[in-house]
Amino acid sequence: MFRSGLLAWLAAGAIVLPQAGRAAAEETAPVPAAGDGWVLGVAEVPAPQAPGAKVRTTARIEVLAGQQGQGSAPLQAAAPGQAAQQIADGVLDAWVGVLPGEGAALPPGVHAAALSWSASPMAIMRTDTDIHAWSELSGRTVCLSADGRVSGELTARFGAIEQIYASATDALLALRIGQCDAAVQDEDFLRQLLIFPEWKKFSAQLAPYRKAELVRLTREDLSAPRKAAVRQATSPERLRELARRQARDIAFEVYLDQTVPDCH
Fold first, then answer.
1. N or C: which end of the chain has fewer CB within 10 A?
2. What is the pLDDT of residues 98-151, one digit of tens each?
3. 111 contact partners, CB below 8 Å, separation of at least 6
4. CATH of the domain at 225
């Protein structure tokens, strides 16, 4: 049972409440250098959580990197197609996300670095699923989060019926209680989630049908303190640590909300 297994984790300290988990993990995660303030752009900035609302961890790892970066300014929204120019114009110091297309020329003074993070769309399903290819999603329901990266794409490309939820937690909960046939999120996030034994029953996978990698754009003339803060806050090593925490926190949020048994 999901409940009994996860309670054992709680007793062992493997999963903790998100607020406490962040404090504990920050002791081991690289701490960004305190700079003189810097501005990080992302494709979408989440709305502030309403007082009393359920805790929900964002699906986008770049948002977590910005929110928890010491010395950083509030995140600013910048569409992928406009990010490089906003950096060149001095509106942003850096931007992290998935760029449209490949090999597009960057404005002078803007540097791009791959972050070794796969945002490629991957699907997970119950292990007893009869879906074994993306084309077999035609007419089937797929749970997505509003802050995911593929809304509209699965319907257009495969004929899937997309169900959009407010968060990754809500989308994954819907998968667990049988409201959809599959859930789609970033590949590297889902691979971290599937490490947990509580997700073994939902570990059937569709490998990504296209490649998407996180990229960091940075102003080349940044001051040394800002450059150090940006690099440390968005380094591949820190993203991997944040991903482990993200998967743990979302798994716990799903556990807290689940009221329908998923095992028989």
1. C
2. 998 766 789 999 999 999 999 999 999 999 999 999 999 999 999 999 999 999
3. 217, 218, 219, 220
4. 3.40.190.10
pTM over 0.70: yes
Element (H, E) at 142: strand 141-145
Taking each helix axis from N to C end, the angle separating 18-25 and 236-257, rounded to the nearest 10 degrees, works out to 160
Q: Is residue 51 part of a domain?
A: yes
Does residue 264 fall inside a structural domain? no
138: left (phi over 0), alpha (psi -120 to 50) or beta: beta
Is residue 102 assigned to a domain? yes
Cα(211)–Cα(232) distance, rounded to whole angstroms? 25
Residues in the chain: 264
- Cα radius of gyration (the chain): 19
If asked whether residues 51 and 13 sit together in one domain, one would say yes
Interatomic CA distance for residues 182 and 27, integer angstroms: 35
